[in-house]
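Lecture 7, part 2: worked example. A protein chain together with T3D.
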Amino acid sequence: MQEYVQLRRDGAVAIITLDRPEKVNALDRPMLDRLIALLDEVARSGTARALLITGAGRAFSAGQDLADPAFRIETNFDIAAVIEQTYNAIVRRLRALPIPTIAAVNGVAAGAGANLALTCDIVIAARSASFLQAFARIGLIPDAGGTFMLTRLLGEARAKALAMLAEPLPAETAAQWGLIWKVVDDAALAGEALALAHRLASGPTVALALTKQAIQAASDNGLMAQLDLERDLQAKAGRTHDFAEGIAAFLEKRKPEFRGA
Ligand code: T3D
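Predicted complex, written out as structure tokens:
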């Protein structure tokens, strides 16, 4: 059976590719279930130190496969249950994964496809890519964490306009607005994204995971709670080999060799 989501390894970097280019990587139920299984595999392996997610062909993903037989209004399907089992399950995993996640957005990212990309820790996009909150076009609200990420990253004014107007946001504007990390020329995207993933994978992985945890918690915490959290997480980072190595390398004027422990 052909798999439309692929996982491969490049050293310490795990690479997941949405690989259904003829349907601009629209996500049907088997693809979503496989994505969940692959995220679990990456988490279980314990050896991947960064995760890169990208799309095959000219798009990142068109979001939910609107032609999926499981997505039929006539069958009276339980949309809440489907979302919980698929998109929510994926977003929860990406946010909890204790390694940096990078989305390399190679083309249009629409609907839940856009919001899965925006859930990643660092989003790098091709200059020709765009982000489309397509939901209003089909009478839905942004899901897969869209209302959270858009509002936190852009504020209500831009979040509401993007969601209600469902117009494509060019990658360059997304970068100017702070929705994503950066834009690169189309031909440079794959190489730059992989180099970024390797750079992170050779970093102090425990500290990076704790950084991710602290920054994500900052969306919910007040300053006092965040100071407590920083203290507690720094105590963990301070017990790692990589902290000792970072200090030693600085004093010895050499490049640190982080182990991710
Ligand atoms: O219960 C739940 O799970 C609810 C959750 C919902 C989450 C969501 O993601 S809802 C939003 C779903 N996505 C969309 O509404 C986007 C629909 N697609 C588009 O707007 C456009 O296709 C794109 C802007 C993404 C790309 O446009 P373009 O011109 O580059 O490509 P195209 O020609 O429209 O698409 C190419 C093919 O892919 C075409 O098939 P064909 O005619 O060559 O056989 C098209 O029908 C197909 N395709 C594109 N998007 C989807 C799709 N097929 C199924 N589902 C799609 N989402």
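Residues 23-24, 26, 62-67, 79, 82-83, 108, 110-112, 132, 134-135, 137-138, 140, 143 surround T3D (CB under 6 Å). The radius of gyration is 19 Å. Keep this in mind for problem set question 3.
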